[in-house]
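Before relying on records like the one below, remember that each one covers exactly one chain. Contacts with other chains, cofactors or solvent are not represented anywhere in the record.
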Amino acid sequence: MNKLAKATTAVLLLLAMAATGYWLGKQNTGIRTRDTGYGIRDTAKSGERKLLYYRNPMGLPDTSPVPKKDAMGMDYVPVYEGEAEPTGQFGISLDKVQRLGVKSEAATMRELNRTLRVTGRIEVDERRTYSIAPKFEGWVDRLYVNTTGQAVRKGQALFDVYSPDLISAQREHALAVQGLASMQNADEDARKSMQQLVAASAARLKNWDIADAPSDMQAAGDSRPHVTFRAPVTGIVLEKKAVQGMRFMPGDTLYQIADLSSVWAIAEVPEQDIGQVHLGSRTQVTVDAYPDRTFDGKVTFIYPTLDSATRTVQVRMEIANPQGLLKPAMFANARIAAGKSGKVLTVPASAVIDSGTRQIVLVRLAEGRFEPRVVTPAGRSDDYVEIRDGVAEGEQVVTSANFLIDAESNLKAALGGMGEQTDSTLTPPLSHGEREHVVGHQGQGILDAINPDGTVSITHDPIKSLGWPGMTMDFTLANTSLAEGIKPGSAITFELVERKPGEFVITSLHAQHGGH
């Protein structure tokens, strides 16, 4: 009996010690429970990270106090104390990045070949224009060139004139030359007087531009009754007023000839861009008549006045035209090399999103992680834009599918926080009854046709998230490869995103039940 009592006492003592140890262990480990307010008891050990909330996996401004899934079945991501996501960043799943065809390129230092695109017109080089205007009275006796626009060569006969005054002057000069020749044995004073008479008559003919007339005189000593005027330059007859038999007075312009082997292009440069244009800048000119050809030239003059109506300054470019392809009065498009040389930080032009009030680029931080940045662009070329701040050299910027990323990630919401003062408080969870923001809209239907312009025609069932009834519509594809292998008439499922108000783009397209 004593042995049984001792055994019972020992068992009770052991039980008491175990209970005491359990109680002390529970106090030391600090296990505690809390009510989440949603009927779920959550436990956390002291010393472990504190769970704050669950955030939307697509980077949307949507959080939840309990685990949940988004509209596409993706799990919300837990956020622990000290791990709150940086303001403005967002994520997109890797498979969706691939479907959107997202491409990126590093911001790089390069020489930016800036160009100004301006319009203008082709004009005659004023320095290569010549007028034929006799300096004496006479009559047009015969025309050799009798049409406007006719091409002439230097020295080619244009017309013959008859002038009593000219004939009289030629005879005087001829007589003076004969008299000088006959006075070989006369005294020195007489020969000097005759030489002065010869020089005076020759000067009179020279002033009339008939200096070579004595060489055309007949052997008998009489001057020719006609004088032939010749083209002073190779070119085109721009104006012809001479008519056979007409009388002209001194100074009347009978012909105007232009040398078109070199022409001018007069361009209108906006006031804000004129500071980038410099004398000697290289230019390239195109005209509608020859769209596949460019004509090289350079800036030779910047006009000193501004047109107050158009707020432009005229710039003159000199262009070689040996084949005569450029015609005066043609409209021209010119590209003028502008700015100064030197390497600057640049990104592709396609990477810059212009919101109207600011310019934004999407920086690719990691696979599926993006951050919108407000940048300050400066000069630009056809393919690249100079960035003064907002992006560092080597950072990857998104160059394609920007607008689809915008729709996928609600970029406007991400950017909204960039202009506001952030504090240490976390985004509060959505209350019960708040409507979850839907980015992707799911639909199903029949693929009716793949259109020649790359769009698809789909007869779809009602789409509840958009409030659409069933109908037939044409949609743009985010990537034309989405429809590859799917035959018209196949049953399909698809996903839509709203690129901009009222414009929807398909980002995912699959055939149902082996419809490929």
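The longest helix spans residues 2-29.
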